[in-house]
Amino acid sequence: MRKQNSIIRILILVFAVLIALLVIGGGIYLFSASRKLQSIALQPDFPETSLEVGTQYSFTINTKPSKASIKKAKAVVDDPTCSFELKDDGKAILTTGMTEGQVTVYIECKDIKSQVITFSIVDSVARAQAEAAAQAEEQRKAEEAAAAAAAEEEAAAQVKKYVKATGDDVNVRSKNSTDGDVLGKAKKGEMFEKVEDVDDWTHIIYKGQDGYMKTEFLTEISEEEFQEGPTEEEEKKDEKKDEKKEEKKTEENATTEESQTQSKQEAEAKAAADAAKAQEELLKQQQEQLAAAAAAAAAQPATYTLSGVPVTATQYNNLLNMFRFATPNGTDAEAKAEVEIHSGAEIRAIIQDKGW
User: Fold this and answer.
1) How far is residue 213 CA from its own chain's centroid?
2) Which of 65, 123, 204, 227 is buried most deeply by CB count within 10 Å?
């Protein structure tokens, strides 16, 4: 009986040990299952989409579950000039190379892989220097062109030009407007030294002073023709013309008495017509002045604001062009967003450094 009881106790003990082993094994299995890696997410710790050459960038590695082990994970980068390493603090560090291009990175642990992220690598310093050099070259060419144009203009100004009247009794005025005083009347064939063209008027030297004639009544002539003076035929024509003028003057003197008998009403009507014409000329001049003022106002450069800093249109365009290379599509909106990443103080420093 005692022997039987001992066997029963041994069986109970064995059974208890088996149950304990099952409980411990199940707990270990459940613990391991709860820490088994399900997914990996790679999160950049920076906002840039374009990375600078020779610079380090940090990424946070997120796992599901959060306590899953990634000791056997590896960081993969497709550019041999770049390095991508895992750190013990749950971070991954990407160090870009010294050449521009694209780089792709991801994390892989056994058969689980994070999302693949691709970045552009740019050398903004080199691009800025190249752009500055290009702008300097353009400015140099513009200055050379302006100097050449000024030299041509100066050379042209030193060559005297001459004109001859093609109309008869054409008014020579004190300014390039019908409002100018009449300095005299040019005879057909009369020659003058030309100063310049002013709209549809020609600036001439008339009896030692500045005068203006309608360009349509003038034609350019050579210096030789000017020096030779009017031809004999033209002088005869002028003589005949003077004779006709004398005859006309005699006729006008004969009709002077009749002219003085004009009625007061006719004189008042003429005065009213002259006043209306003067008013019309004044209104036209005022309209021209208003149009000129509107054109001048429209020509004023627009101003813009970047990061709270007011900038001129030229400075605005220069800043957009400087940072356009860092945008995916190169649009003005993207370039402006790229500029406004910088603070107002940084934008002022860039403008001052570039001399804009």
Assistant:
1) 42
2) 204
Give the separation between CA 356 and CA 348, rounded to whole angstroms.
10
Contact 203, 196 (CB under 8 A): yes
Q: What is the CATH number of domain 40-122?
A: 2.60.40.10
**The whole model's pTM is what?**
0.36
pLDDT per residue as tens digits for the range 43-83: 999 999 899 999 999 999 999 988 888 888 999 999 999 99
Spatial CB neighbours of 46, under 8 Å, sequence gap ≥ 6 = 57, 58
Distance of alpha carbon 140 from the chain centroid = 19
Q: How far apart are CA 206 and CA 34, in angstroms?
A: 107
- What angle do helix axes 313-323 and 332-339 make, rounded to 10 degrees? 90
Token readout for 38 is 């399900």
Strand partners, 94: 57, 84
